[in-house]
Amino acid sequence: MRYALLTLTVMLLVVACGPKLPYEPESRVDQAPNFSADYEVADGRVTVEVYTDGFNLDDTWLVTADNRRVDPYRIDYEKNRSGGLGGVSVGVGHGSGGAAVGGSVGVGSERPGEYNRAFLHFKRDAAGGPPWTLSIKPLGEPRTIIVLPVKEDDER
Question: For 24, 66, 117, 120, which has the most beta carbons within 10 A of its beta carbon?
Fold first, then answer.
């Protein structure tokens, strides 16, 4: 019984943690998309990875340290993966009037988009160096702001 509860708890934690990236909005409106982001600076460009929570992006840009807007020159999307933890069910029983534990966790999105990640590419000379403010506007949802701070390993 304890093993079953431990297993169920671990599975729920794995599902709840999801594919978060390190930087999130400082504040979030109820029912707003669950965005997070990270970035990499290399080869003359800044690539910002955004977990989109299944939403399609309508408009997005970076605001530089000197308050300039920089639009991405390219956006790539990663399709949602099928399978995996797409509907976790746990059922444990014990015979002759013993105990049973059951549960079901639906994983997936009722969101309209078919992509969970967007990769925004910015020219390094236009974007400058961090920190940046990432402005994301998903279709049909309010704008979300994520601060992308300086990392210790940033290319200078």
Answer: 120
* Amino acid making up residue 30: D
For the chain, the average pLDDT equals 75
- 91-108: pLDDT as tens digits: 444 455 555 444 434 343
- What is the sign, positive or negative, of the torsion defined by CA atoms of 136, 132, 117, 86? negative
SS3 (DSSP) at 103: strand
The total number of structural domains that make up the chain: 1
Cα→Cα distances 28→39, 136, 137, Å: 21, 13, 13
Residue 115 forms part of a structural domain: yes
CATH number, domain containing residue 139: 2.60.40.10
pTM of the entire predicted model: 0.67
Question: Could you give the count of Cα atoms lying within 13 Å of 123 in the half-sphere of its Cβ?
Answer: 6
